Amino acid sequence: GYRSRPSQKLGRMVLLTTKMMERTALFLSFGSYVTSLTTAFLPLWKTMNSDLNEVENWFSGLWLTCLYTEEKGIQCKAYDSVLGLPVDLQISRVLVLISIGTGGFALLTGFLGLEGVGVCMRKPEVKRRLFIFSGVMTWVSGLTTLAPVSIVAYTTVVDFWDEGFPDVMPRWEYGEAMFSGWFGGLGQVIGGTLFFVAVCMGDYDLQRLNVPVSPELKPRTRYYLKTEVL
Fold first, then answer.
1. Which of 6, 127, 172, 193 has its CA 20 to 30 A from that of 88?
2. Does residue 6 lie within any of the structural domains?
3. Average pLDDT, rounded, for the chain
4. Residue 2 in this model has a pLDDT that exceeds 50
5. Where, by residue number, does the polypeptide cross the bilayer (predicted)?
């Protein structure tokens, strides 16, 4: 059947918007994943400096502890024993590794599900499932980034306000990496949501293409009466 020009323009606009949403979701997820990945290995989750010795600054992360002095610069050392770590760091390490794995897998499946990528070009249902899977994995990656940062932040606040420590004793405080971790995890959650928005927009486009043409738009068939010449 024939389609009116406004319907064709609407279809092109919906298809273009769907492609833009897919790419926005992928780019946002990629940028947030890089931020979360960098945060995981930075030794700047917690900082500590003492009023008694202002030339020394301590930095702590999930994998390293660093000391900065004006004379020797920064010196980092890995933790001696995994079992000797506090429980919050052990849990945070596991969650961060899950976040890295799921986030990388989500980006791969999301790229394969993009319109225009030469994978399953004639199978839109497969691309739809790839995008749904990518959205779920991006959500998992974002939540497993937010969780360890929030756990370490909570324990830092509890230790900071612990009345059992003397006032002159230095306390651990928030480091820059914690804020970048919150930012990266939140960005991944938003990126995963945009994946689902792109899936819904694609479903709408498919439904619009599969709608049967109304009788008014069908071409009229002309019938001619056959007459005989006597």
1. 193
2. no
3. 82
4. no
5. 25-45, 94-118, 130-157, 177-199
Total number of domains constituting the chain: 1
Characterize 171-210 residue by residue with b for buried, 16 or more Cβ atoms within 10 angstroms of its Cβ, and e for exposed.
ebebbebbebbbbbbbbbbbbbbbbbbbbebbeebeeeee
Q: What is the pLDDT of residues 154-177, one digit of tens each?
A: 999 988 887 777 766 778 888 899
Q: What Rg do the C-alpha atoms of the chain give, in angstroms?
A: 28
Q: Is 31 exposed, middle or buried (0-12, 13-18, 19+ CB in 10 A)?
A: middle
Closest of 25, 21, 43 to residue 187, by C-alpha: 25
Using CA atoms, how far apart are residues 172 and 45, in angstroms rounded to an integer?
A: 10
DSSP category for residue 123: -
Q: Which residue has the higher pLDDT, 53 or 127?
A: 127
CA atoms within 13 A on the CB side of 77: 6
The number of beta carbons lying within 10 Å of the beta carbon of residue 128 is: 17
The confidence score (pLDDT) of residue 54 equals: 67
Inside any domain, residue 119: yes
Structural domain harbouring 197: 18-44+85-207
Q: What distance in Å separates the CA atoms of residue 111 and residue 130, rounded to the nearest whole number?
A: 9
The answer as to whether 116 is a domain residue is yes
